[in-house]
Amino acid sequence: MKYLTKELLDHLKYPHYMEGYSFKEIEEVEKMYTCKFPEAYREFLHLMGKQAYFFTGIDYSMYELSGYRGSAECNLYLDFGDIGLALLKKDDIVFLSSQGVTHYYMSLSEGENPPVHVIQEGMRKLEPIQSYESFTKFLRAR
User: What is the per-residue pLDDT across 115-131, written as a single tens digit (0 to 9) for each?
Assistant: First the structure.
């Protein structure tokens, strides 16, 4: 693994209550969404995309990405109207949703280990409430 290093996996206590997808399953979902996921996210999906103990109670299925984006867009629209929809760019994927009010997203065009941004229902400013320098730094914060 290039991004999910042994040190990071030890920090996450891998493989403790973790289960991933095959690369073939990941490629099928990429075809479904007509995109290529960042490599760090692909590694995550492969090692723990089905089940990760530190995401218990949080939705992060790769099969539900469009639903997570729809929920995030709904919250942005309710908080800011049409202008709120401009926050998420076309190539952003919302990959994690917590109770439909907090959403984590990253851009498909910002490299193999892109920054992760957090938006939440009820934001006062049209900007992420938190950002992580990379997907792996997001995981390390778990």
Answer: 999 999 999 999 999 99
